[in-house]
Amino acid sequence: MALLHNQSFETFSDFKAQLHQWALSDNFAIKIEKSDRSRCVIKCRSAADCPFHVRATWKPEQERVIITALNPIHTTCLGAAPVPRASCSQFTYLREAVPKILAITGKTKPKEIQQAMQLHHKVSISYAVAHKVLQYLQGQDIGLERAQFRLLLLYIQKLHEIDEEGHFHLSACSESGRFQRLFISPSASRHLFQRSPKLIAADGTFTKSKFRQTLLFAVGIDGDNKVILLAWSLVESENQDSWEYFLHNLIR
Ligand SMILES: [Zn+2]
Q: How far apart are the CA of 118 and the centre of ligand 1, in A?
């Protein structure tokens, strides 16, 4: 976990991420003394005269960031009061590290973030910090989801390209461009349905995303008696209109 002299990193961000992990696990606070394109100097935040320091330098000939000076020993800061709140840089580290070890949903609790950091990085963080990171990530979540809806048009175009005989349909508001409905039936499913149009079940369920939608789907049975998904659709809710949209596209 501790950094080493001459250790190298691809970028300063990688260097800082590992440094934060070290600081969190050994429970000391860091201060960025200097940071520019060619070097980054880190000192101990708890006491101005603590000898702890790390210097990382960009080496153009190697195209790497190298630790060129390091004193890992803290002395004068021993017994110093712990840093009362998360520094900005700790927050920056956590908001990148947490999503890599925990899937954040609307139901995630700060406690789960604390446990995940403990389990994966042997790092204790306070409830307040976990709460702040969670709020940030959940806010991000809705933005990410919105961005994913905007990618649907490209997704459907791609599906048309790679599966010409499938049937894919995206309906969006002509004025605002807002998502309305989506229908997907790959060619393999369509061929099966056209050969033996036995629909054994059609049902709907709600999605668990931020933008609550309804997933409609139909399943059939193939020659081996296996249940096959024939088509699925994302619609606003289960109503006569949305079922008509789905079935109309299915038999098309
Ligand atoms: Zn120190």
A: 23
Rounded to the nearest whole angstrom, what is the distance from the C-alpha of residue 49 to the centroid of ligand 1?
8
Ligand 1 midpoint to CA 91 (Å):
20
Which residue do the tokens 């603590």 mark? 50
Break the chain into its structural domains and give their ranges.
Answer: 1-84, 86-148, 152-251
Residue 133 DSSP one-character state = H
**Backbone φ/ψ region at 31: left (φ over 0), alpha (ψ -120 to 50), beta:** beta
Cα 112 to ligand 1 centre (Å): 30
- pLDDT tens digits, 86-135: 455 678 888 888 988 888 887 889 999 999 988 888 778 889 889 989 98
- Read off the pLDDT band of 82 (50, 70, 90): low
